[in-house]
Amino acid sequence: MPPIDWTIDGLSLETHTLLKSYVKDVEKAYGSELGGILLYGSAVRGEFLPGRSNLNLLLVLSSYDLSVLKKYDSLHKRWSKEHVVVPLFLTVDDLQSASFAFPLEYQDIHECHRLLWGQDPFVGLKIDSRYLAAEVLQGLRGNLLRLRQRLVEGRSTEEAMTILLSLSITGLLPILRGLQRLLERPVSAHGEALLKDLESHLAIGLPGLRDALLLKRGQISPGQKEIPRLMDRYLESLTRLVTTAEARIT
To answer: What SS3 state is found at 114?
Structure first.
């Protein structure tokens, strides 16, 4: 299959070179078993931060046989060092059922991805969103519950709180885009616009979430005394958001 000529706005030449090298490695490893390689997430949304953001990919394969999956072992060893996380593995036949079970994740990919190689399985696909509300509510509650548990596991140290704030807001953003869809709002690609829209539409303040987003991006560097206060603000904002969202979409 001939290579696809692509460039992605906002990504450096170094990241483009890295992705093209990754595509060559995957194509070599899988050959005729590979149907497509798609990039999604922050690298496509214009929010990629070199050294901080991961590269999220989806591989369209011919099957999920163990022998097929094991071919990625050596690739993961090589590419995890470059912030390439283990990709989603999918077959074209399973895409419809997967998107039906996980409308939040697959709607996000459907709306914002780039084809790096092969054929795009999302062309012509319609996402069934009847379970979107349940997945959004589960995601909101789950994020809050896991955050509390991991705080205790990490003994609420400043280091643990710094890591957990970044992890929590990263996992929260796609859920909030799902919430925008349920509220019939235009979906925001960037985190700041997303939080601003929900604050305005739901008439609530989310200062803790904005602070966590700035922390994740390295735009603020709170000291040891400020991190616990930031966590308090984050928990307060997230709890307020969960309660308000539940009241609006149930």
So the answer is: strand
CB 12 within 8 A of CB 50: yes
CA gap 28, 141 in Å, rounded: 42
Rounded to the nearest integer, the mean pLDDT of the chain is: 96
Return the residue matching tokens 């798609």.
38
Phi–psi pair at 154, nearest 5 degrees: -90, 10
* 240 vs 193: CA distance, rounded Å: 19
Confidence of residue 129 (pLDDT cuts 50, 70, 90): very high
Instruction: HSE, CB side, 13 Å, CA atoms: give it for residue 194.
Output: 22
How many Cα atoms occupy the beta-carbon half-sphere of 243 within 13 Å? 10
Q: What is the DSSP string of 38-104?
A: EEESHHHHT---TTTSPBEEEEEES---HHHHHTTHHHHHHHGGGTBPPPEEE-HHHHHHHHHH-HH
Most distant pair of Cα atoms in the chain: their distance:
56
- Find where tokens 């807001």 sit: 169
Q: Which tens digit of pLDDT belongs to each residue from 16-26?
A: 999 999 999 99
Distance, in Å, from the CA atom of 6 to the CA atom of 145, rounded to the nearest integer, reads: 41
* Strands lying side by side in the sheet with 88-90: 88-90, 56-61, 34-40, 113-118
Other CB atoms closer than 10 Å to residue 98's CB: what's the count?
15
pTM: 0.93
Rounded to the nearest 10°, the torsion over CA 183, 187, 188, 192 is 10
CB 228 within 8 Å of CB 206: no
Q: Tokens 């009241």 map to which residue?
A: 247
